Input
Amino acid sequence: MADTALTAPPRSPLSHYADRLAAATRTSQGAVRLAELPFLAQVNVRLDAKGGAADAVGLALGLQLPLEPNTAIRAGESTALWLGPDEWLVVGPPGSERDLETRIRAAVGEEPVSVTDVSAQRTTLLVSGPGARDLLAHGCALDLHPRAFGTGRCAQTTLGRTQVVLVARDEPGAGFWVLVRSSFAGYLTDWLLDAATEYV
Amino acid sequence: MLLISCPWCGPRDEAEFHYGGQAHVAYPQDPSALTDEEWAKYLFFRDNPKGPFAERWSHSAGCRRWFNAVRDTSTNEILAVYRAGEERPATAEPKPARPAFEDKAPSEPIGGLGAEPSAGVQGAGPLVSGRGGVGENQPFRLPTGGRVDRETPLTFTFDGTEYQGFRGDTLASALLANGVIQASTSIKLGRPRGIFSAGVEEPNAVIQIEEPFPEPMLPATTVELHDGLVATSLPGQGRLATQPDPARYDAVHTHCDLLIVGAGPAGLAAAAAAASSAARVILADDRPELGGSLLGTGELLDWADELGTRLESAPEVRVLRRTTVFGYYDDNHLLAVERRTNHLGAQAPENVSRERVHRIRARRVVLATGAHERSLAFADNDRPGIMLAASARTHLHRHGVLPGRHAVVFTTNDSAYAAALDLAAAGVQIAAIVDTRPAPGEWADRARAAGIEVLPGYAVTGTEGEARLTAVSVAPYGETVAQREFAADLLLVSGGWNPVAHLFSQAGGKLRHDEALGTFVPDVVRQAVEVAGSANGTFDLAAVLAQGAAAGARAIEAEGYSPDAPALPAVPVQPRTTPPMQVFTVPGRDGAPRFVDLQRDVTIDDLARATGAGMRSVEHTKRYTTAGTANDQGKTSGVLAGGVVADLLGVDISALGTTTFRPPYTPVSFAALAGRDRGVLSDPIRTTALHGWHVEHGALFENVGQWKRPWYYPQDGEDMDTAVLRECAATRESVGFMDASTLGKIDVQGPDAGVFLDLLYTNMMSTLKVGMIRYGVMCRPDGMVFDDGTVIRLAPDRFLVTTTTGNAATVLDWMEEWLQTEWPELKVHCTSVTEQWATVALVGPKSRDVLGSLAPQLAISNDDFPFMAWRETTVAGIDARVCRISFSGELAYEINVSPWEALALWEALYEAGAPYGITPYGTETMHVLRAEKGYPIIGQDTDGTITPHDLGMSWAVSKKKPDFIGKRSFARADAVRPDRKHLVGLLPEDPGTFLPEGTQLVAESELPAPPVPMLGHVTSSYRSAALGRTFALALIKGGRERIGERLYAVVRDRLVPVTVAGPVLYDPEGARRDG
Output
């Protein structure tokens, strides 16, 4: 029994949507690209931005915690998203959550800090392609025009009828990350696929 | 929707925020030192001023920060925002209302003197012997002219007869081309009614579309003709489709620097001024073509076409055709509906939404919405063939259609002369222009020069004709007996012009009565909007263009862009204008009805009954008579009705004002408003990582909040009762398991975590040892229970709090609210981890055996792993946190793992439990098991009026803690009343009788005369496998003192005897907890 469990691969919230996302991407002929980016490491960090802890974490991770609201900073494979004046989400490659948590805790020393592994709390949808902004605008009240929400911007807001963290990725044409609570991921994917009907 | 500026995130939609009541009401330092009255004042009393009010808001769908805002409660304007803990700033003054058009200079007519007559209709040849030139089947169609495409004939059906029209027609113009003018019968009187206008203001020709898909109550004047259209006339009221609508509908959020509503001359000029800057501009118009009123007058169309092409190619300009802006809300939020595929008929692509709602947030708005011509209340003014004068001109210029052949024109102003001249030039014989004004001036001279008789100081006194107008009689204005009669099939009417001020008014703009124009025009407004052109009461074309360009330029300049000075087209000089005469009521033939609202069949007599009954306000006469309440919302009749009421009351119309303009400007279908929020997408569905397994195993689901939770798993055609009894029995007798992943989970970290939880919970949490678990109750400051759950101590500075499934977000918000607004000094943070963990409850006497077989490293005996302890281990090779918690009274474990591995765990448990007959169970069985033990469900057995003491949970209320939220309220007189409702058990005397939840309880076996003293009600009711009978939980006044008493439950008309019992009906000594 234990053996079967050990060999079972982990299942992401949208694993059963992979085919439909791929089909929508294919038939849109490049207009939109939809995919789940499963198992990204996500660590929620709460600390007082006025103290030295933010800089210490930045040094330890080689990734500065953004102080400007609603911005994201990327370094290598990791990205730090501003979620609040004392709250960040550090996103890294799958499997790196323990390492991230350990390094952050070590960096801050005695400063009061909360570090919480939330890798499974949300999954990540990639929405890219020339039609990505139009697609998201069907359900997102934020102004997504490049002048208002260009690369390096992120925001907690609503898409469709669920809350998301929206990230405009920093490479041109790389589109958006949509981080959504795992329990809402199926609903949001149904919504996105329906909204994409006109583009596919 | 308000735009609220979060101090951190900037302006966001109001929907992202959560209101938190009055700001600066601090939690008292020492509640226990307060008198009951002082404490009640803190709990229940808040200011409610008119004007600036400091209140708390949370950016709940964004950064989750609480902040303060000063809002003017009378205007909803937010005057200041500031962070929690900051002083209230000196409040900015509310924005002053600004004029509807900033610069008054260009609104004066600048038409010249000594005008040359215009050339009439370009290319419109006179009709020969009453026959049109494009075939027998469209006898009223001109051979040339108009914007229709004569190369593309379209076949359509109206009232069972097949006709032909052209691409570019509306249904109304195509009917007119075929000589059909009657398009309905009136709703109350059944009188024949004809096409009255050429646009959205149409009161009469409101028809039913039958194919391609049924849709009721559309003005034929706005329905674009397409091949295969089938429509029928209506007796005033339509029919909804009975089959589901297969079309798609959607919405899109749109942002711009400048929204221009209306692509007539003013709107086009505004767009021209803004187009080549980098400003983001949207130009929206409800017709398929740009041009607005120019389409109806035939003027400047080359300019409109060229400009349209230029706008289409400007990168930051969007032209939205077929788009009606129908609502104007706070902070320049406007809603528009775009009709995207209706005009394509059966060719509409399936993957394109039929209608789209644009939710537009505009920095600036220019309203160039034009004006509607209004009618006059004269005798028999409702016969088919009576039409607004400018609308007849529109049918000529836009569609190449003559609405009739022999016309009389009845006017109070200059505008009908241009219509008469153009129609005459196109071959309509104009018998006379009847003008109420004694000296109509230069336009009358021009008409006479064209050979048209003008009757100054005259009015229409009556009409003849049934299916169509045949004759018009006239007399000097004020007389009722006809002096002359004209044979006519067309009577063109102009009672003046009403600026389309609907959106302006919805924006909060005030109207004023303009004496010179004889109508209501936009005055002042607080939002960032200007009104240009005839919507602002400016009717001279050159002035309209100049106004539009100025408004467009000002708007984008205010947003930091450099406007163009657009090359505006030259406007031919027109005759000097003569002021209009304000006329509403026209005396006429005795006994003839004089209609005010054609769509509602409201006459002057009806309004006279309203004023006779004492009505003095147009809002009252509207409701008394229904004038203006039909789906045209009184576009042609509203001001007329006001004028008639003014005449009846003998006051000036300026004293009465208008009725309120409310959205939508034109009817919008529910389907369009719903967009894709219908069917499965109407509300988010939350699922756990195990959802697929539950579906595969036949679970039925219960909605708990937005979660889908397995309710029960019926086998082989079991009904619910049987399935639940089976699941309960299996769990009590052997082992069952349940997906408990939906419970809310909050990670509470920081050196002050224990202090913080001690303040939140009624019981002591700081004394909990690492590795142990405690049940806790949370109250509101009023002492009423609002959530409960377990608290796990993970580390000295770290707890994991669980909440009820439906309350997870509320509890987290609650924690943040206290931390951010009252106790910012506490070093603690709360993070939701609800979906970070999947939770499986393994329950029953055999649960230890099942767990043990999968967790060989775990010391599992009762001594090693006691009740209310937790352990980290691996279960089935999966990292797990196992908690010994029971919500059933049985030996039980909650196994928490990563949701990525939850299915593997679940399947391993299913397999390992198979020898014991492990049974998956759902929420219903969970409810029965907990109710047998008297465990309340917060929100089911409580309703916000119940204290922990009422629940019999005094043991969970600390007496040691100096304070916690709710503590002071337990000492209020109300909280210690002996007749408070207590949670108790209830046993029907007949063990088979089931009491519906909500059943009321009374003391006597026969109902006394009302009012009947009610003792309480049933909160939970089940059939119990373990007890072999039905039972219930109930809230009963003084319930604990009534244990053993017989009461009566009122079930429909029966009084069912029941016995009050203690709440714990199963295993009251707790023997089963440790297995």
